Amino acid sequence: MKIFKNKHKLQKAILNQKNLSFVPTMGGLHKGHISLIKKSNKFKGKNIVSIFVNPKQFNNKKDYLNYPRSLNKDLSILKNLKVDYVFIPNKKEIFSFKPKNNIYLDNFSKKLCGSFRKGHFEGVLNIINRLLEIINPKRILLGAKDYQQLYLIKRHVTKKGIKTLVVKCNTIREKNGMACSTRNKLLNKKQARIGSKIYVYLNRLKKRHVVNINKMKEDIKNFGVKKIDYLEIYNLKTYKKTSLINKNTKIFIAYYLGNVRLIDNF
Ligand code: PAF
Question: Mapping DSSP to helix (H, G, I), strand (E, B) and coil, where does residue 118 land?
């Protein structure tokens, strides 16, 4: 496994890699990341993982500072997974150049997380646009837990004519049903039990056809959730809000357990 901090050295090393699979991360690696990396191992060619806690996608300074970091542990996980290249840039490496493409921000960025986290998706696209330019991978693997992120990256890549394929990977869940997330490390046992109840509840409701969103919010609050940013259903063909559930729809939720903000979709 080769580790790079400098983008030019990295670029020199991967110059002839025409079939690179790329997994971008902010570290704090968990089963979800491991599954993405294992999937990237299945493609022919080499793989690369980036670790960069991107300040531009945090709308809240405290959240950025509290974000779990575990570089040594992450590196040993990546080594065990036989990752070929790891890119750990600092802020200067990433932000000190002007990318060829500016970012394309689809209107769906204004919904869901976009309406609660000002500048979040601009921040995500900013970093992904830069990483794609530096690495020029054949494919990028992204988890469906961050569904809106996945969609917006896909739209950006398509609109800007970037050759990288966006590979959607299924959400990986903890034994208790919660979507794996680096932020789960910040939860106590009681909070994790509430997260698990929400999973069981929404997973059951997604099989219904008609639901009452207000009643759902009330039920979730009764599990012990103090704050729900949103609980909304979208049709994934039209990207319009709906209250009818069918094979084209998804329930999206963002809620807080203590100070920890979690998202999921069903
Ligand atoms: O999903 C994440 O961890 C981040 O948003 C990403 C894609 C690595 C960009 O910083």
Answer: coil
